[in-house]
Amino acid sequence: MPTPCDKAVRHWFITGASGGLGRRLTEHALQRGDRVTATIRRPAALEDLREAYGDRLTTEILDLTRPADVDEVVGRTLRAGPVDIVVNNAGYAVVGAAEEMTVEQIRDQIEVLLLAPMLITRAFLKPMREQGGGRIIQISSMGGQVGTPTHSSYHAGKWGLEGFTESVSREVRDFNIHLTLVEPGATRTGFASALRYTAETTPYRDNAVGRTRRALQTADAEVFTGDPAKLAAAVYDSTRDPNPPLRLALGSDTYNAVHAALTERLTALETQKDLAASVAFTH
After folding, report:
1. pLDDT tens column, 153-175
2. What phi, psi does 140 have (nearest 5°)?
3. Dist CA 262 CA 257 (whole Å)
4. Residue 80's CB: how many other CB atoms inside 10 A?
5. In 3D, which of 111, 171, 141 has the Cα closest to residue 249?
6. What pTM value is reported for the model?
7. How far is 78 from 260, CA to CA, in rounded Å?
8. Which of 96, 142, 235, 273 has the least C-beta neighbours within 10 A?
9. How far, in Å, CA of 77 to CA of 276, rounded?
10. Is 246 buried (19+), middle (13-18) or exposed (0-12) by CB count in 10 A?
11. Sequence-ordered strand ranges (E) for 91-156
12. 231: enclosing H helix or E strand
């Protein structure tokens, strides 16, 4: 049975395809002859691609905060035929101090970044297992391994997605289902427009939260060094790899930040070696 890495024409399911990386990846797959079911928020978002590629592109309106709608769209997609590659891409970030975030902001952030990808991943596991394999691409971020002020709920979602994906990847590897966490750095995908700021409060205005908030609000496009077309190509190429990595770091900023964070954590862990051993029973 052909696997996603060697089939001539594959069927993709991509969330958050209205713009940014989701649109780039949709376009890249279509250009290479694949079929795509793309979820969008605005009905006319991909009209130009529909005109160019006809029935190789199917669009679905989807609000990821509505689990019943997720089930309906995934079910309709699977009834139309097997899906080879799933890309959980949709996302945004709440920016501000944890103390400033409302319950609604936190809940919505976790629903979009973590709960929806979990539900979508789960929905596709059985059909992929029964068809002999598949690929699930989780668009994480360097924020899935590195923590910065103002992004606590975003990190909760991305770190959760990383743990979920690592666990599931070990559950399904025997079924030829491969999961990959894509960790982009600062990329010119228009993600800055997807930042939703908390109402700023005085205690946080002049500390690390306030400084980070203003840096994001005034950031020039030039600081976003990642090329979304190259990122989409790298993700696409990973789906042709028979042994894809669990994590795919894309961007020098991702590599440097994750390397520094892992080194810091490992250094801290080494200082606790004796303490860790000291809590065992002694006989």
Report:
1. 999 999 999 999 999 999 999 99
2. -95, -130
3. 9
4. 12
5. 141
6. 0.93
7. 42
8. 273
9. 49
10. middle
11. 93-95, 134-139
12. helix 228-238
